[in-house]
Design brief:
Layout: E1 2-6, H1 14-21, E2 25-28, E3 42-47, E4 50-55, E5 58-59, E6 71-72, H2 77-90, H3 96-107, H4 114-129, E7 134-137, H5 149-159, E8 164-168, H6 177-182, E9 186-192, H7 210-216, H8 219-226, E10 229-232
Parallel strand pairs: 1-2, 1-8, 2-7, 8-9
Antiparallel strand pairs: 3-4, 5-6, 9-10
InterPro entries: WbqC (IPR014985)
Protein name: WbqC family protein
Length: about 240
């Protein structure tokens, strides 16, 4: 059993989905503190040849709240505004007619919290791309929030009888390979390779939302991109 544990990110960059595809079970880490100005409710699109940051408005968001408890704004106008931005940005993209209905369905999911929106959106993206990884919100299973940092990650790995844990490359300083090995778990870090594709006639802007990738590439091409990574052992 190979697992990964990540906070829920809305329409994340392709590396997030590479990690999801690389494992058997993906834990949505939704019972940890919300991070202001992070990627939970924000991402970037290509608009007029430049990266454009969009934000899902939230209600009383605070780092004193867990992600699962942070609600979406009561004002529904953000949905039509975001869809209008997507239309403006990509209506001439080669796969707009296929992808826009998917994004429209995602944005209009009838949910209450940002965690529910992300979970629903990832399920729809996985179905579109043929990713069969099981996805589980951490808040529904483990009840181990008295543990912190590496100890909590290890506890989840042990409960899942995991033999491998894969983490994003940015977490190399957070985890001790020997400590994982003592529990019979191999620790790896995923390093995305550069993924490039034509974006109209613009100079390529990397690492935008998966929405951008889908607008310019068909499913087989994206599936190939999902395997464009290396697994690194931290010595």
């Amino acid at each position: 059993m190979t697992i990964a544990i990540m906070q829920p990110y809305f329409l994340p960059y392709i590396g997030y989905l590479q990690l999801m595809k690389a494992v058997d079970k993906f834990i949505l880490y939704d019972d940890v503190a919300y991070i202001n100005r992070g990627w939970i409710n924000r991402n970037r699109l290509l608009l007029n040849g430049k990266d454009h940051l969009f934000t899902i408005p939230l209600k009383d968001a605070s780092q004193n709240k867990r992600i699962r408890d942070v609600e979406l704004s009561d004002d529904p106008k953000w949905r039509s505004k975001l869809l209008k931005t997507i239309e403006q940005a990509y209506r001439k993209a080669p796969f707009y007619t296929t992808v826009y209905p998917l994004l429209e369905k995602i944005v209009n999911l009838e949910v209450r919290t940002i965690a529910e929106l992300v979970g629903g959106s990832l399920s729809l993206l996985n179905a579109y791309l043929g990713i069969q990884t099981e996805m589980v919100p951490s808040s529904t299973v483990y009840g181990n929030d008295e543990l912190k940092a590496q100890d909590r990650i290890l506890d989840i790995c042990l409960r899942e009888n995991a033999s491998r844990y894969i983490n994003p490359i940015g977490g190399q300083e957070l985890y001790d390979r020997q400590r994982f090995a003592e529990e019979g778990i191999d620790l790896f870090f995923i390093q995305s390779k550069r993924v490039a594709y034509p974006q109209f006639k613009n100079e390529f802007v990397p690492w935008l939302s998966i929405a951008d990738v889908l607008m310019f590439n068909d499913v087989p091409a994206v599936q190939t991109m999902l395997d464009a990574y290396e697994l690194i052992v931290n010595e």
